[in-house]
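USER: I would love a firmer grasp of how sequence relates to backbone shape in proteins. This is the protein in question:
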Amino acid sequence: MRLPALSLVLVLSLVITQAAAPPARAAEPLWQESQGASAPPDIARLNDFMHGLSERLKPSLVQVRVRRAAEPQPEGQEQQPSQPGAPDERRSSGSGFIIREDGYLVTNAHVVGDAERIQVRLSDGRRFDAKLVGLDERVDLALLKIEAKGVPVAQLGDSNRTRVGEFVLALGHPFGLEQTVSFGIVSRKGAPIQVASPGFEFIQTDAAVNPGNSGGPLVNMAGEVVGVNSMAAVNGSIGFAIPVNLVKALLPQLAEKGKVEWGWLGVSIAEVPDEEIGKFGLKEAKGVLIRQVVAGQPADQGGIKANDVVLSVDGAAVEGPRDLQRIISSTPVGRSVKISLMREGKETEVAVTVGAYQPGPARPRRAVPAPTPRPPAPQPR
């Protein structure tokens, strides 16, 4: 009888001890949970609109993957043995967007130039080998074709109606990251940093255009493509897009001929210096000064001379060099134009048949870092 009594005493002692002990303190949380805060109604509606617009645009956005041959070794340099895992070709990627349901799509020329193979990845994950239909390096535009039917397309707008200060979205695959959207405004319409285009105004934006965004669409708040993202400043803070109206003007030539035939005169030009207005018989510094004329080219054959000042082409006033570049480059090759000019203080007119643009010597390819060579094996002495 003593054992049960002892057990009862131990149990009662334990219960009394637990009852007297202070309750355990709950652990302090590491963060403070929101109690359901919400954005102001106007901001919430803007967020919903931007999300919906982004989701609506993504299906026509594609990733363009390119394989190029390995860079040749400089002459006189021995070919180093490949390291394990070193690529025998160069691979890169960019962006593009579909413009027709049967698989035509637009990207940049620098994205697909010199490619051995082009592969396009759609938003739904499907992959297609692409054919290069046409390319123009002067504006940095390329037209591709994949064998697909019923694919979602982007709607092309009117870039002439795009105004400085308007909101835009830049879509693409920067650094290989898929389906990226960045937000900004139209900062400016004018010449890009590197003037390659013949007098056309590019769209400058602060929407991020990073490596891999090239070839993607620049889109307004109506969901219309107003430009093709093409280039950015070194630090990525300034981006440029090819205006979509220029793209629409060039696509028929790319589809039919595989290239763009730009018109040209064969002259070097400059602005009229303010201090030389009287010398050329002008009342104001308008027009384009002809510095040099290339022998045997259209301007020379039509009678244009050095120190002439071009005032108009077929009645269209020429305010400065970019006006003349734009008018002549977009004139069909072989067409005759009437050029009004000032020569030695007297206004005269000549007829010139526009020739085909003569590109300068090919620029060397951009260098690609080569694999680090293995250290040479010790030579026997």
Observations:
- Residues 2-20 form the longest helix (19 residues).
- Confidence is low (pLDDT under 50) at residues 8-12, 81-86, 361-381.
- The chain has three domains: 55-70+90-145, 155-257, 263-356.
- The chain has six helices and 22 strands.
